Amino acid sequence: MAQATFLRIHPDNPQQKAIMQAVEVLKKGGLVIYPTDTIYGLGCDLHNARAVERLCQIRGINPAKAHLSFICHDLTHISDYAKISTQTYKIMKKALPGPFTFVLEASGKVPKIGGKRKDTVGIRVPDNRIALNLVEELGNPIISTSIHDEDEVVEYTTDPELIYEKYRNLVDLVIDGGYGNNIASTVVNCENDEFEVLRQGAGDLEEYL
Prior knowledge:
Helix content: 25-40%
Number of helices: 6
Shape: globular
Strand content: 15-25%
Low-confidence stretches: none
């Protein structure tokens, strides 16, 4: 496998040509490391099963048991892949785009992952133009996992150049969208409209309840 491409994209003004270059990689089944409003993510086209298997292999996780997030462009996107009540929709509409992962009941459109159909799905709409433009141009969600650091103190790698050094022989494209944050998204279980915080991260759910 050739070394990954290192692609710089301005976070506030993503160039269309660069975005389309990254989208082409995704459409061909490639793995892309990209910025979000929290930490950097490793993602691929939701509907490319072989790419999802590669992603899980890199992270050392079982595809059938993996808790992977769907990066969506907006709330319309979400309703295609998750069942969402009116109450939950109202909360998500206020909180997104933002640093939250909302765990919802999966719809029938969610493809099998590792040969197994998921009961729930984690949905993200990050407040990051690069991530949102990628998903919009791809036309469906990116399935994603966080880029972790092996450092015992720093859980997530924030420097895209260091990320490239580590993953250049494992992925197809690394997007440099500036330094990432070191705090992950807040994970909220929305089943039964109870809004249980499973992991406290960058977002404060209380602001939207």
